[in-house]
Specification:
Elements lengths: L1 E9 L8 E10 L11 H4 L4 E2 L9 E2 L3 H4 L11 H15 L7 H8 L23 H17 L2 E11 L1 H9 L6 H17 L4 E7 L8 H7 L4 E7 L3 E7 L4 E7 L7 H26 L12 H18 L11
Helix pairs in contact: 3-5, 3-9
């Protein structure tokens, strides 16, 4: 059996809201080479595809940037992403329904945002962007395809860190690129703890445009033997051998095009972040008249902060817990 996982992030660049690093986990029955994992789009082609405009009504799994809509014609921008994430989550438990975003955060191991700041207190009902029957159909379709292909989906995990934690890391001298790397290593460590005796392939998108990761991996896994398989312009690949098992980890430019688990991780990270941002936008909209929502990116985030600052002051809240410094 091969454990095949993908890691990706959402929210690296914004001024506001969390950084989310997600991992999707799959197991493949039979002998599989960690250096050559199967193409899960092909394996699960009865149920999944890469585009939201599929005539067969299959579930789109792709880079979240390609699947988020623009809200035209009354279609929720997150409809395609929500459908894919909730369908994939159902493989883990055979449960089609999650009723609030708090349940989702618990399922994927994300922080409870209501304990972090007042503007994250109001939960959101799920499904958020789809009708419940759409989710139920997608769940059933993906479960049948996975069973027939001898592929098991083990859900997703999503680690989150918000402005206050990011700012504290900066005060301790951590550079911005180290924050997502730290969360990535936490995800890999959790994978190895969950499947200590299995062969594991971890596929990740390239981190900060770097080609070489050996030194960072040696620091993260000092007791293991690490071998460089390749370090090339498009992809860097390493083999990490522990006393119990071997793991291959790759960092690929545009990795979400090669590895379905990365694409699903991208969707999961985006979904969790957007739900956090929805809570923030609703809380401030209740306190500032005619406040347009924000996605938290720098230019619009500054606009948003300028408009909400009086509400922050009136509520006695510290804006350093809202606004990132790096």
């Amino acid at each position: 059996m091969l454990i095949y996982a993908g890691i990706d992030e959402a929210g690296y660049g914004p001024l506001l809201g969390p950084l989310c690093v997600a991992c999707s986990h799959w197991s493949i029955e039979g002998e599989s080479d960690p250096l050559a994992p199967p193409n899960l789009w092909k394996t699960l082609s009865r149920a999944v595809c890469r585009t939201s405009k599929d005539r067969r009504g299959r579930i789109a799994i792709n880079d979240s940037k390609k699947l988020k809509g623009n809200g035209e014609n009354g279609v929720h921008p997150m409809r395609t992403i929500e459908r894919g994430v909730l369908a994939a989550l159902s493989l883990q438990s055979n449960v089609d329904a999650l009723y609030t975003d708090s349940e989702l955060f618990t399922r994927v191991g994300a922080s409870d945002p209501s304990t972090i700041a007042p503007w994250y207190c109001e939960s959101t009902a799920l499904p958020w962007a789809c009708d419940a029957p759409q989710i139920q159909i997608a769940c059933a379709m993906l479960r049948r395809a996975a069973i027939d292909a001898s592929v098991a989906g083990h859900g997703m995990t999503c680690l989150t860190t918000d402005a206050d934690e990011i700012n504290e890391a900066a005060r301790q001298g951590m550079v911005k690129t180290s924050v997502p790397w730290t969360l990535l290593i936490q995800q890999v460590t959790q994978l190895r703890a969950r499947w200590p005796d299995a062969a594991i392939r971890v596929a990740a998108d390239r981190q900060s445009g770097r080609m070489r990761y050996l030194d960072d991996l040696l620091r993260a896994f000092p007791n293991d033997r690490i071998k460089v398989i390749q370090e090339e312009l498009r992809e860097s690949v390493y083999q990490i051998d522990s006393a119990k098992a071997s793991m291959v980890i790759s960092f690929t430019v545009g990795g979400e095009m090669d590895h379905l688990p990365i694409a699903l991780a991208s969707m999961t990270a985006k979904y969790v972040r957007e739900l956090w941002m929805d809570r923030m936008n609703r809380w401030f909209a209740a306190r500032v008249t005619n406040l347009a929502p924000t996605a938290g990116y720098v230019k619009d985030g500054r606009r948003f902060v300028g408009l909400i600052r009086p509400a922050l002051v009136a509520s006695g809240l510290d804006e350093s817990k809202l606004i990132r410094t790096i």
